Structure formats: structure tokens, C-alpha cells
Amino acid sequence: MSSCSSRALTILSTVFGACGLLLVGVAVSTDYWLLMEEGIVLQQNQSMEVKMALHSGLWRVCFVAGTENGRCVASEYFTEPEIEITTENTANILKMVRTATPFPMVSLLFVFTAFVISNIGHIRPQRTILAFVSGIFFILSGLSLVVGLVLYISSINDEVMNRPREPEQFFNYHYGWSFAFAASSFLLKEGAGVMSVYLFMKRYAEEEMYRPHPALYRPRLSECSDYSGQFLHPETWPPPKRGRIDSRASSDISIQINQTPPQPTKNPLVHIHLVLKAERWAEREKEGSGEVEELSRIER
């Protein structure tokens, strides 16, 4: 069940990250973020005559009605483009939305980095930290994009609120599909980030579950320690405490040890530890039985 859920998280985070990268890339490269039209209201039949209509993106403005019909102009960030716009408020809107341009670009860079790191982490799942790093980059990408969207909307709303109200003129605007792609990519990137972080937590928990106990490892030796060699040289270990042991009991124990060798375990460290322990116990029992025989001979 755990491997199944980890596989599902891996697939979902990859799909969400790829879709988020694709949508924000399309949104940044297209010019349908904002659609505007303005004109006059004819008093005779109460109809509207469109004087200008355009759609704009982060890099280009295209006119679809008016004197500039069919013309696309690049958004100049340092010089003013030579275009004829009906009202000053419309020109101000096109100027103010440029302040939000850096944030989608940073978001695109972050999500590309996150997608690459995430795929490397899926190829090498033993490197658990890569899932966490990719999740952080996905979340930062989504936050950067939402800051840009908020600045974009607030710039347009400020200019629309300051626009003078004239009954003989009309002005309409709405957001295009490029803006919708950017907003959708924010949700996808945040979802990919959350799933990547959760995948990191699951992988880390699985590593901790199957990691051997620290007691199975021998201590690392330090060259500057006075006791650095005591674990490599058993002859330097302190002698065990001996007591009088009945010869019959000692012989029974030694026979039992010799007849039932330690069962091999799956962990080689545990097996070596048990073998050394059995050997030390057998040597101790032999020494104890020798002392008992010597004492009995002296008493005689």
C-alpha cells in the first residue's frame, strides 16, 4: 500500500508539474492576457461604434479595430511605441501592466528548475532530498506567479477607477485565455509542490523504518583517543569477572553451545556479533572448568 501510494504521488507530481510548466510557458509567450475596446455611443439609435479594440500580452499589443487595425506592436519597456490610442487611460493601462512582467518570468524559471530536479529525484529515489527541493521550487514558482497576477489586476483596476465617466463614451475590458492559463498553472504548481513535499516525507519515513539500529555498528575509532584501539584488539579488553562454576554445569553449557551453533541471520553484522559472543563464552567456560579442576587437585 505504501509503495502504491508513493508511485501515485510520483506520477501525480510529475503530471501536475509538467502541466504547470506548459501552461505558464504558453501564458508568458502569448498576447491574450487583456482584451479592451472603447468607442462612442450614438444618440440616434443608441448603438455603439467601436473606435479601438486590442488584445495585449506581456510582450506585444495587437489591434483588431480602429485606425491601427491589424497591427501588432512590441511592448517597449524603455521607449514609447509609435501607436495611436484613443484615450490616455488606455495608454496608462498598457504602461502599468508592465510592472507585473518580471514575476511570471521568475515563476517560469522556478518551475523549470523544479521540474528538472523532480525528474532526477524520480529516477534516483534514494536521493530523498531532491523531492523536497523540487517541492520548494514548485511552491516558490506558484507564489511568484500569484504576486504577478495580483499586480496585473490591481494596475488595471486602478486605471479603470480613475477613468472619467462620460455618457457618450464606453469602455469594456476582460481577461483573455492567456491570463486563465497563468491562473490555472498557479494551482497546478502548488499542487505539485505539496505532493513533492509529501512524497519526501513518505520516502524519509520508509528509510527510517528500514535503517539498522545504531547498536549494530561498531563505534568509529578516533586517532586522538586513548581507547582508539580497544575495539580492534580483543586481547586488551578487561578480563571478565569469574566465579566458581560447577564443572557439570559448565560442561553442559559448553556441550550445548557446541551442539547448537548460532543461527545465521539476514544481517551479517548481527551474525558476526553472535559468533564472537559464542566464542568468548566458550573460552570463558573452558577457563572456568580448568580452575575448578586445579582447585579439586589442590584439595586432594
From TrEMBL:
<dbReference type="GO" id="GO:0098970">
    <property type="term" value="P:postsynaptic neurotransmitter receptor diffusion trapping"/>
</dbReference>
<keyword id="KW-0106">Calcium</keyword>
<keyword id="KW-0472">Membrane</keyword>
<protein>
    <recommendedName>
        <fullName>Voltage-dependent calcium channel gamma-7 subunit</fullName>
    </recommendedName>
</protein>
<dbReference type="GO" id="GO:0019226">
    <property type="term" value="P:transmission of nerve impulse"/>
</dbReference>
<keyword id="KW-0107">Calcium channel</keyword>
<dbReference type="Pfam" id="PF13903">
    <property type="entry name" value="Claudin_2"/>
</dbReference>
<keyword id="KW-0109">Calcium transport</keyword>
<dbReference type="GO" id="GO:0016247">
    <property type="term" value="F:channel regulator activity"/>
</dbReference>
<comment type="function">
    <text>Regulates the activity of L-type calcium channels that contain CACNA1C as pore-forming subunit. Regulates the trafficking and gating properties of AMPA-selective glutamate receptors (AMPARs). Promotes their targeting to the cell membrane and synapses and modulates their gating properties by slowing their rates of activation, deactivation and desensitization and by mediating their resensitization. Shows specificity only for GRIA1 and GRIA2.</text>
</comment>
<feature type="transmembrane region" description="Helical">
    <location>
        <begin position="175"/>
        <end position="201"/>
    </location>
</feature>
<feature type="transmembrane region" description="Helical">
    <location>
        <begin position="129"/>
        <end position="155"/>
    </location>
</feature>
<keyword id="KW-0407">Ion channel</keyword>
<dbReference type="GO" id="GO:0099590">
    <property type="term" value="P:neurotransmitter receptor internalization"/>
</dbReference>
<keyword id="KW-0812">Transmembrane</keyword>
<dbReference type="GO" id="GO:0032281">
    <property type="term" value="C:AMPA glutamate receptor complex"/>
</dbReference>
<dbReference type="InterPro" id="IPR004031">
    <property type="entry name" value="PMP22/EMP/MP20/Claudin"/>
</dbReference>
<comment type="similarity">
    <text>Belongs to the PMP-22/EMP/MP20 family. CACNG subfamily.</text>
</comment>
<keyword id="KW-1003">Cell membrane</keyword>
<keyword id="KW-0406">Ion transport</keyword>
<dbReference type="InterPro" id="IPR051072">
    <property type="entry name" value="CACNG_subunit"/>
</dbReference>
<keyword id="KW-1133">Transmembrane helix</keyword>
<dbReference type="InterPro" id="IPR008371">
    <property type="entry name" value="VDCC_g7su"/>
</dbReference>
<dbReference type="InterPro" id="IPR008368">
    <property type="entry name" value="VDCC_gsu"/>
</dbReference>
<dbReference type="GO" id="GO:0005245">
    <property type="term" value="F:voltage-gated calcium channel activity"/>
</dbReference>
<dbReference type="GO" id="GO:0098943">
    <property type="term" value="P:neurotransmitter receptor transport, postsynaptic endosome to lysosome"/>
</dbReference>
<keyword id="KW-0851">Voltage-gated channel</keyword>
<dbReference type="GO" id="GO:0051968">
    <property type="term" value="P:positive regulation of synaptic transmission, glutamatergic"/>
</dbReference>
<keyword id="KW-0813">Transport</keyword>
<feature type="transmembrane region" description="Helical">
    <location>
        <begin position="103"/>
        <end position="122"/>
    </location>
</feature>
<dbReference type="GO" id="GO:0098839">
    <property type="term" value="C:postsynaptic density membrane"/>
</dbReference>
